[in-house]
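Action item from last week, closing it out:
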Amino acid sequence: MSPNSIGVILPDTDEKGVNSLVKKIADSNGEVNYSVISGTYPVNIFSRLVSEDGEAADASPLDMDDHLDSRRLRPILKRGMDIVGSCLGLLLFSPFMALTAIAIKMTSRGPAVFKQDRLGKSGWRFSFYKFRSMYWNVDDEIHREYVSSLINGKNEEVNQGEAKKPLYKMKSDPRVTPIGKIIRKTSIDELPQLLNVLKGEMSLVGPRPPLPYEVQEYKPWHLRRILMVKPGITGLWQVDGRSQTSFDDMVRLDLRYAQNESLWLDIKLLVKTVRAVLRPSGAF
């Protein structure tokens, strides 16, 4: 870059945002001669992330791994906390998990725990565990349409609450069983993910791992939420926003967490998660 050049990095916008900035520069430029070169995230990242060929994609266009952080000990401590926390959680909640599994099997056909493909850090695909809260083998088209509208910012269309108190989650989903409504409200359906944490596929704290068809709807800057840190069971969105936060704001919360990640922050978020579960106003 020459001494007369200016570089601008816009990590939280897309091609449309870049073009908007360029236009503002051009409109306020006066008579100064200049040239502009712009670029955005490689578009092939998305196709590689949602590929069904079973190969893990090296989806990160930039090297954003832990060696950029001078505190090399932090990932080791975080992994240690994840192992201890997931083991304690499985021991503590095993009676509730057993009762939940029995209740699900007695009230609807299908497995008590189901596996679902999700995308983790840098786009690595893994099997995500969850207590089944829906009828078995139901069509997911209703959810695909909803998340497509949510991710694309059609907030008024998907808001199922009020203008001053929005709700960006399907309030009445015909696919959910009566038992499923209870375990969703109390977040019991998330407990099997402690196994994902123990296996190292997830962390106790981090962004929620998306479904492949959700990533197909992402804007380039949305993608950073799964490139930077390992996904988690809980995070800033769950305690500070939950279902009352738009998708773009949820991504911003995830990026804020990734930029400020620390063990102390994880501990505070875990404590706040317990409070949020005990007062589940944003869960359905």
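Closing note: The CA atoms of residues 102 and 112 lie 8 Å apart.
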